[in-house]
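CHAIN AND CONFORMATION:

***
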Amino acid sequence: MKTGIFYGSTTGNTENAANLICALVGGSHATPVGDAEKADFEACDLLILGASTWGLGDLQDDWADSLNCLSGANLGGKKVALFGLGDQESYPGTFVDGIKDLHDAAVRAGASIVGLCSADGYDFQDSTAFVDGQFLGLPLDEENQSELTEERIQMWIDQVCREAQ
């Protein structure tokens, strides 16, 4: 199964998470989404997409042009797993909202989403990425819970690999 990992990162935290995910998946490399084209998304069986959320729920800037590229790709029959970084203490009402933007674009492109996550261990008020009692992907908070990042990623990657089979 060909896996593609694409991310947008401003401060480097999302890039670091993408590289950790890449190391655990093996045989792939993490690509800044600004360097990706529609064909790059379409060439993968499993896409792992990551972005941070800024301000009051804004998707990270690198995704501005790439989100349309993603939603215009033919992802029918492909699996997509999402991860997002946010700050649940400073922005508890928009925590990891960027995951929802990625989710909606991938679904418009025909993908099936894998890797939904429980809210256990998080303390937030609201998130557009929290639907029907689950996050639409893996939330990470490097500002307040960085000590949990590696363990969360490891457990999530194990789940994603099982679900993507």
